[in-house]
Every structure is written in structure tokens, then in C-alpha cells.
Design goal:
This protein has helices at 19-24, 39-44, 53-65, 71-85; strands at residues 2-13, 26-36, 91-99, 109-117. It starts with a strand and ends with a strand. The protein is of the alpha+beta class. The protein has a single domain (2-102), classed as GTP cyclohydrolase I, C-terminal domain/NADPH-dependent 7-cyano-7-deazaguanine reductase, N-terminal domain (GTP Cyclohydrolase I, domain 2), CATH 3.30.1130.10. The protein is 33% helix and 34% strand.
Amino acid sequence: MGQIALEGMEFFAFHGYYDEEQKIGNKYGVDLYIETDLHAAGASDKLQATVNYEVLYKVVAEEMQAKARLLEHLGHRVIDRIFKEFPHVHSVRVSVSKFNPPLGGICHRARVTLERAQRKF
């Protein structure tokens, strides 16, 4: 078992509870950690034996472009997509941050972190 992480991804997107937020947009950050078996990739040095980072980034980028009201909803969508695209992934932890959220005061970012293990039947 091992971990693959994509940290510090940044996107400009149109999320937010208020309609105005969905019109003017904001900067968001995403940190992603997946647990999967990395033994085959380590032994073979073959890209197809691991989770391709470029494809993983593309999945996150696509989900970030689809509007959402809540960061929690974004996080759940990212996790769902990763499990769909990479069924061999054991667990996913994702943090989604909104920079300078409209709270009426100084706040660098609001962040939610979600984690889920893949259910195996």
C-alpha cells in the first residue's frame, strides 16, 4: 500500500452558496491524497501499473469547473469520480479551500476535508 498526493492545486471557479459568488467566481485550492497498492508500479516502473497523476489532476479540474453551492459537495464529487475512474484505489482524502471567503472579515481561506474508503463487496 502507498499514497499518491497532489498538493496545492489551484483553480478559478464559480462556486458558492450565494448567487453572486457563482457569478463573480473565486480562487480555490485542492489537496488530494489517495491510498492504493503501489507495489506493481514500484517493481515494473510502468505508468499503467499506477494512478496516472495527469489523469488524476484532470478529474479534479473537471469537477472544479462544475458549479456547486458547498465545498462539501465538491469534495464528495471529487471522491466519487476518483473511485469511478480508478476502482483499484482504496481510499481518498480531499481538502477543498475557498480563498478569501465572503465572511465580513479577514479570513485567508475556508476549508473542508473529506475522507472515504472504497467499499469492497
